[in-house]
Structures are given as C-alpha cells and as structure tokens.
Amino acid sequence: MKLKITLYICILTSCFYGYSQSNCTDFRNGTFKFTDKESGKVCIITRKDNEQTEKIENTQEEYHFAIKWVDSCTYTLTPTATTVQKNKEVLKLGTMTVKIIPATDSSYVQLVRVANSPKFKRRDEVFIAKDK
User: pLDDT tens digits, residue range 19-63?
Assistant: First the structure.
C-alpha cells in the first residue's frame, strides 16, 4: 500500500512539474516589470529571442544582455559589450542564471543567481507589462 501511495505521489508531482515547465514559453518574449524590494525602483525587462534589455524606470540606466536558454524555464544572462562599456562593474558579477517559476497567467517568480557571488540569491515576482 505504501508503495502505491509513493508511486501515486511521484506521478502526480511529475505531472505538475511538467506542466509548470511548459508554461515558461509564455515568458520567453515580451515586456515585463518588477519592483526592487530594497530600492523601490521599477525595472522594465524587454526580452526578445536571445536578447534582454533592462531599464530602470524614470532614469537613463539601461543594460543589455545576451540570453542563452539552458532549458525551457532557465536562462543565463551575459552583458553585451555596450553594457560593459557603460558600466564595467557588470563584469565583476559574471554570468547571471535566472530560473522562471510560473505564478499566474500574468506573472512569474524569478530566482536569480550570480556566478561570481555564490551567496547572492534574488527572488522577485515579475509581471507582464500592460500596453499603455
């Protein structure tokens, strides 16, 4: 009986895992936004194919990254030469790895890790930006 229950739980869990993995395609391209909890600044993310731009709302601050998809819900971000020229500090961070966890039809949670700072972990809820 315990074996049947364990097997049932494993099958059920794998179904949910597969479902959440397939929903990440909704977030591969588009415009998204989140608010930094510490600074209160709003970041607008524009993602298209293998490029991502991040702009801090109401400022001139803007960053460009190359995206490499590791799997359907995980990607890495590497700063472009343009971004490095504007802000050499981004090189110190190294490659960022972002894991998308679908939350709703219009939002996801992103888990961010930075290559050169193993203790760094960031979690944000990111929303699909509505057209004005």
Answer: 444 579 889 999 999 999 999 999 999 999 999 999 999 999 999
pTM of the shown model = 0.78
Residue among 112, 108, 109 at smallest CA distance from 96: 112
Host H or E run for residue 91: helix 89-93
Contact 57, 41 (CB under 8 A): yes
Instruction: List the CATH number of the domain containing 113.
Output: 2.40.128
- The residue segments making up the domain with residue 11 are 2-128
Contact 23, 102 (CB under 8 A): yes
